[in-house]
Amino acid sequence: MKILKKIGLILLIAFVVAQFFSPEKNQGNTEDLTAFLNETKPSAEVKAILENNCFDCHSSNTNYPWYNSVTPVNYWLDSHVDDGKKHLDFSKWADYSVKKKDHKFEELAEEVEEKKMPLPSYTWTHGDANLTDAQIKAIVDWVNQVRVGYAFASKPQ
C-alpha cells in the first residue's frame, strides 16, 4: 500500500507542476479574417455558423473554453488547433492562390456534407456546434456560389 501512496503522491506533484507550463495560445485578432470575409461575402447566417463552428480551429483567433487552463487538456486543444490550421487557415486566406482557395472550398463543402466537420470532439464540448441540415445546406450553397467566382477567375482571359 505504501508504494501506491508514493506513486499517487508523485503523480499529484507532477500534475501540479505541469500546471505551470502551457502551449502558446492561438490569439490573433478578428482583423485577420477580413480578407476572407470580404472576398467570400458570407450571409449573416453563414458568418454566424463560421464563427461558432469553424474559426476556433481554422483561424488565428481561438475562443478558448475554461478547461483550456488545465494541463494536459491545453496541449490536446493546441494540437487540434494546429492541425485545423494546417488544413485550412481562414486568417491566411489572402496568401492562398485562387486554385488553392477553390480546392479548400471544395474540401470544406465535402467535409460539412459528410458531417466530418466540425469534429465530434468539438461538438461534444460545444453543443451548439452540431450543424442542422439547414445550416449544412446554407454552407454548401454559399461555398458553391463562391466557387463559381473562383472558376471564372481562374480561366485564362
What does this entry look like structurally?
By secondary structure, the chain is an all-alpha fold. The protein is 59% helix and 0% strand. The protein contains seven helices and no strands. The chain has helices spanning 2-18, 34-40, 44-53, 73-87, 98-113, 120-125, 133-154. The longest helix is centred in the last third of the chain and has 22 residues, at 133-154. It is elongated, with a radius of gyration of 20 Å. The mean pLDDT is 86.
Main features:
single chain, 157 residues, mainly alpha, 7 helices
Radius of gyration: 20 Å
Distance between the termini: 79 Å
Weakly predicted, low-confidence segments = none
Mean of pLDDT? 86
Global structural class: mainly alpha
Beta strand count: 0
Strand content: under 5%
Largest sheet, strands/sense/barrel = none
Describe how the helices and strands are arranged:
Elements: H1 2-18, H2 34-40, H3 44-53, H4 73-87, H5 98-113, H6 120-125, H7 133-154
Helix pairs in contact: 5-7
What can be said about this structure in brief?
By secondary structure, the chain is mainly α. Helix content is 59%, strand content 0%.
